Amino acid sequence: MKKSLLLLGTLFTILFISCEGPTGPAGFDGRDGADGAAFEAAAFEIEIDLLLSSNLNRYEFLFEPYPSDISLRSGDAILIYRLEEVSDGLDVWRQLPQPFFSEEGLFYYNFDFTQGDYSIFVEPEFDATLVQSGFIENQIFRIVIVPTDFDATAKTDKSNITAVLSSIGLTEADVIKTSFK
After folding, report:
1. How far apart are the C-alpha atoms of 63 and 60, rounded to whole Å?
2. What tens digit of pLDDT does each residue of 131-169 get?
3. Of 63, 53, 50, which is closest to residue 128 (Cα–Cα)?
4. How many Å apart are CA 105 and CA 123, to the nearest integer?
5. 92 forms bridges with which residues in the sheet?
6. Which of 5, 43, 59, 99 supports an S-S bond with 50, CB 3.0-4.6 Å?
7. The overall pTM is greater than 0.85
């Protein structure tokens, strides 16, 4: 009996779900929304030597303007990554700020930015002249521009450059490479 009722109920449901009635009234026209982003995400790579600023006890790469085809809007952000090493043919990137412990003590790779330029620093907690040259010469950084209207989710691991590039629609081929040496 239960199987008969189940079968009858299933047939009854299918018949009523598959029926079509007259088309309903048209919906209201939507309002015009804001235009899409005026600026798309971008990424570029630089190779630099950081220069000693003895009066500030740090190494720096100062006030470098963005590539000519990139301009930041109010609210845009940048993320900077340092090429740590190449392991088995794969680049290993670390997000700044980045602390390092050396025999001399602790130092940081750090950065700041405005809408017009960016700067990268090595800031030691000891005499800057003691920082080994391998940490300040021939350094490669990737700068990723994140548009203000990017819908970032908490699930995007911002320390993972591949995940960040993917989430903003960029690939390795989109990275502009330059050298300041």
Report:
1. 9
2. 999 999 999 999 998 887 766 555 778 888 888 888 888
3. 53
4. 11
5. 85
6. 59
7. no
